[in-house]
Amino acid sequence: MMNSTRYLPEMRHILCIACVLALGACGTRNTPAPVTHFGLEGGASSAGVHTVSGGDTLWSIAKRYDVDMKDVIYVNNLRAPYPLEVGQRLTLPPPVTYKVRADDTLYGISRTFAVSMTTLARQNNLKPPYHIKRGQALKLPSVQPATYKAVQVAAATPGTKPVGPEVASKPVSSVDKKPLISSSTPARAGSKFIWPVSGKIISTYGPKKDGLHNDGINISARRAEPVVAAENGVVVYADDQLKGFGNLILIRHADRWMTAYGHLGEFKVKRGQEIRRGDVIGTVGSSGQVDSPQLHFEVRRGTDALNPKLYLAGQGS
């Protein structure tokens, strides 16, 4: 069987650190978006949001924060000739480089900037066990349009309205054509989630070899076995943009909970659809980077990945 955890850092692209990659999508018109510091040195605060002041240009802002100007243009849906207004809030992509601080780990840095740890290691020519030292400059991968699309979907929270226009560049997948997501979320049916499928756990939650980490559990099950929603909620993502997870569904639940279902064979629901606990949302498959039928399942509260077994009703396998 292919290693079921070697690609798991890719999940951060759509679920982790929304305050870095999706500030514009999460902020409300009445409440300022939270500020995330990237820990860079220099005169700039290196925060996740920049408020335009007199004399600012895209070039000066990109240089100040050590980010790619093209990424600033994309994530803020700017159009040529890129006019800026004083007081305008711009979401900032991750910087081009990051200087390692005391107690940093490659895994922690990958979570902070929502990038794959394996990609980060490869880009900096690092080998297991991925030792890094204070003051070391790490190159960060450039922003990928599909990543921003997916993160903005996953990070949407009840009662918020995006600041600024929705991204209207060339569609990167069918997710762009699907209905808008309702801001309301149905109440939970119980205090515990139900198991999405019956089967044997073949990869547990937590640290794995070579510094990797499984943010959920992988459950072996028969191909085409129905996969059910673990709780009442709204489908915020149903697509295959992350090759590691193949066909993936994200369901938003009340009180900032979210569940993820990867390696599906078929989708039985669509983005924006309200579902009930126990509803069939898909089937077990082997899409993505696995070679046997299984379900990758995650439970999250906000951006924190939690051990699913602690929040599932019953013992399971």
What are its keywords?
317 residues; Membrane-bound Lytic Murein Transglycosylase D, Chain A; Glucose Permease (Domain IIA); 2 domains; two-stranded antiparallel ribbon; 8 helices; 16 strands; globular
Give the helices and strands, then pairings.
Blueprint: H1 12-15, H2 18-21, H3 23-26, E1 49-51, H4 58-65, H5 69-75, E2 89-91, E3 97-99, H6 106-112, H7 117-123, E4 137-139, H8 145-154, E5 200-203, E6 206-207, E7 213-214, E8 217-220, E9 226-228, E10 233-239, E11 247-252, E12 257-267, E13 274-275, E14 280-284, E15 294-301, E16 304-306
Antiparallel strand pairs: 1-2, 3-4, 5-8, 6-7, 8-15, 9-14, 10-11, 10-13, 11-12, 12-14, 12-15, 15-16
Q: What is the highest CATH level, the class of the largest domain? A: Alpha Beta
What gap, in angstroms, lies between the N and C termini?
19 Å
Task: Compute the average pLDDT.
Answer: 75
Q: Helical proportion?
A: 10-25%
Relative strand content = 15-25%
> What name goes with the CATH superfamily of the largest domain?
LysM domain
Unreliable stretches, pLDDT < 50, 5 or more residues?
A: 1-9, 12-47, 145-178
Topology order in helix (H) and strand (E) letters: HHHEHHEEHHEHEEEEEEEEEEEE
